[in-house]
UniProtKB/TrEMBL annotation:
InterPro entries linked to this entry: FAD-bd, FAD-dep_Monooxygenase_BioMet, FAD/NAD-bd_sf
Keyword vocabulary terms for this entry: Monooxygenase, Oxidoreductase
Top-rank taxon: Bacteria
GO molecular function: FAD binding; monooxygenase activity
Provenance organism: Mycobacterium talmoniae
Protein name: 2-polyprenyl-6-methoxyphenol hydroxylase
SUPFAM superfamilies with a match to the protein in the record: FAD/NAD(P)-binding domain (SSF51905)
Location of the FAD-binding domain: 11-173, 282-342
UniProt key word Oxidoreductase: yes
Length: 389
């Protein structure tokens, strides 16, 4: 998406080198803009286990020229059952992939970030640069850093995640906890029987997921209630075992293998913030979790950050000199309705007792697969998928 002939390359300051920041920087560099990414940490690194890349996110990665060949594990099936093993639905991930033209893939975060960084000019990332302020100047915007340094640009993209500083500056509301958290990570098992089959189990007071992530790696998550003031138990494994033992043989095998070390980075509290009518201001906009933190229920957060990248590239490619703020507002408006729908669905309560879940089990697997496919298509700006790679 190169700028139109009458557009000029922009000096773009990206705050945050997560998947959102790196993907938008990669895309805008390809489009001929002058992009620098500022990251507060000493190096770019991916925290956490694996993420699901759905066909909507995969389409953007393809546009960005990021090869995902051989990364992680493609999935054919997602089985959803109750905590006693009663079938709720079986999603046909292979059919979703066929209809949407890209696989459903579980990818360790470090691999996704490494693929995004392949061929990315390292000098375009400034680590140890914690941004603390943004001000307007007569020629654009200025980003200020903790060490009293600054950088001048035409626009600032706040891709600084869940507790975004840039969101504070544009007057966005803080993300709020949903009351749940995930104890989550990647473990390596001696063998994984059904490598293409992911499993979700829904219980009265918690849920679990076991998703193959490539080779002998398995992504596990155990969702339990969480509240502000939560005190992490000294022995979290006992909490997890007492909540989930006996749900299934597969889950019991994982529980027997898990160690407290595997749970060390957990729990990850779930957050959501209301998506504002206009999440940007002047030459400042937001992207990824900074714009729309949502619970991981639909595994869409990363995919939505990638879609932000696609739409923002389009907005800036159409932008003429002087229309920058209008282009950014167009990007925000174009994304808002779709991302709101995703965030709303992702925020529905999953955990329920068997009696409440029984009606859901009456819907056919085909219908549920079709519904999810239609939903993903509806929220993914598909007309923008077919742009040059
Ligand atoms: C338990 C859990 C499971 C999930 N599973 C999935 C999944 O399966 N699929 C999926 O699509 N999504 C999933 N998500 C969501 C996904 O992790 C996020 O949506 C995604 O990482 C957001 O990327 P981001 O780049 O916007 O933010 P981040 O990855 O948070 O990156 C923000 C970056 O900004 C930096 N930063 C912050 N403040 C500053 C500052 N002031 N100055 C400079 N740098 C700064 C940070 O250090 C960080 O590197 C999950 C989330 C959770 C909690």
């Amino acid at each position: 998406m190169p700028p139109k002939p009458n557009a000029r390359p922009l000096r773009v300051l990206v705050v945050g080198a997560g998947v959102g920041g790196i993907s938008v920087a990669r895309g805008l560099l390809q489009d001929g803009h002058d992009v620098t990414v500022y990251e507060q940490r000493p190096q770019v690194r991916a925290a956490g286990g694996a993420v699901t890349i759905w066909p909507n996110g995969a389409a953007v990665l393809r546009q960005l020229g990021v090869s995902m060949d051989g990364a992680g594990q493609t999935l054919s099936t997602v089985r959803v059952v109750t905590s006693t093993g009663r079938r709720l639905t079986t999603l046909d991930a292979a059919a979703i992939a066929d209809r949407m033209g890209a696989p459903v893939r579980m990818v360790p975060r470090r691999i996704l970030l490494a693929r995004l960084l392949a061929g990315f000019p390292a000098e375009r990332i400034r680590c140890n640069s914690r941004a603390v302020g943004v001000t307007s100047t007569p020629t654009g915007v200025q980003l200020e850093f903790e060490d009293d340094g600054w950088a001048d640009g035409d626009l600032v993209i706040g891709a600084d995640g869940l507790h975004s500083m840039v969101r504070d500056i544009v007057g966005g509301r803080d993300a709020e906890p949903t009351g749940w958290c995930s104890w989550q990570g990647l473990i390596t098992l001696p063998e994984i029987a059904d490598k293409q089959v992911a499993m979700v189990m829904v219980g009265d007071h918690g849920n679990l997921g076991l998703w193959p992530a490539g080779g002998r790696d398995l992504q596990f998550w155990f969702d339990l209630p969480w509240s502000v003031g939560f005190v992490r138990p000294k022995d979290p494994l006992s909490l997890i075992r007492s909540s989930f033992t006996g749900w299934s043989d597969r889950a019991d095998r994982v529980l027997a293998t898990l160690t407290d070390d595997d749970l060390a980075p957990s729990p990850y509290p779930h957050f959501r913030h209301p998506i504002p009518r206009s999440p940007g201001l002047g030459a400042v906009t937001l992207l990824g979790d900074a714009a729309h933190t949502m619970p991981p229920t639909l595994a869409q957060g990363t995919n939505q950050a990638l879609l932000d990248t696609m739409v923002l590239r389009k907005a800036l490619s159409d932008c003429r000199t002087g229309d920058l703020a209008a282009a950014l507002r167009w990007y925000e408006k174009t994304r808002r309705r779709k991302v709101r729908a995703v965030s709303w669905v992702a925020s529905r309560q999953v955990s329920h007792g068997e009696a409440v879940l029984r009606p859901a089990a009456m819907l056919s697997d085909r219908f549920m697969t079709w519904t999810l496919t239609m939903f993903l298509r509806a929220v993914s700006h598909r007309r923008m998928w077919a742009t040059r790679e």
